[in-house]
Amino acid sequence: MINDLDQTLAALLQRELPAELAEQLQFSFGAPDDRFPPSWLSLPAINLFLYDVRENLALRSVEVDLERGSDGKAVQTAAPVRVDASYLITAWPNPGANDSAEEEHRLLGEVMRALLRYRTVPQDVLRGGLTEQALPLPVSRRTGAAERRSDYPELGRQAKAGTAACSRAGGLDGGAKGNG
DSSP for 105-168? Predict the structure, then answer.
């Protein structure tokens, strides 16, 4: 499910960024630590680092589906778990840019514009198991302590401009609870 969310966000950005920019960019999902960018990554690039995944307790469902199998036995299945996934998004300009800070800010601004264009991810860019979700997949600008730049020392890197986005995905199967 997390890989599906990664691929969905990359597809959304690829589609929504200006065409001339989108065709130049690569997307990565690694920690933006002191070894970033990795040698395999061509710049310019957008990095979406998944820094927090947690169950959304407000959306926890206690409902249980009851289905009868072909043998007539009833099987109880818990509702899928809904999780919030928070990404630290950073822009990595081409090293040959005249003003790398200005280019970094331009890239980051375009990414924010693309992500904030929608309250929920359009159905046609959903990937993998996310296409089967019953609820829409929201995307929002994340605010608060979770996105503090003071988190950078933990990554072994000095502060870098970035933004944070949060999305919600479902589909972690609650599994069978029992037979009846």
Answer: HHHHHHHHHHHHT-SB--GGG--GGGGG-SS--BEEE--SGGG-GGGHHHHTS-----EEEEEE
pTM of the model: 0.76
Neighbours of 15 (CB within 10 A): 13
Q: Which of 53, 51, 45 is nearest to 13 (CA)?
A: 45
Buried b (16+ CB within 10 A) or exposed e, 33-70: eeebbeeeeebbbbbbbbbeeeeeeeeeeeeeeeeeee
Q: How far is CA 61 from the centre of its chain?
A: 23
pLDDT digits (tens, 9 = 90+) for 87-105: 888 889 988 878 888 999 9
C-alpha span between 42 and 44 (Å, rounded): 6
pLDDT at 65 over 70: yes
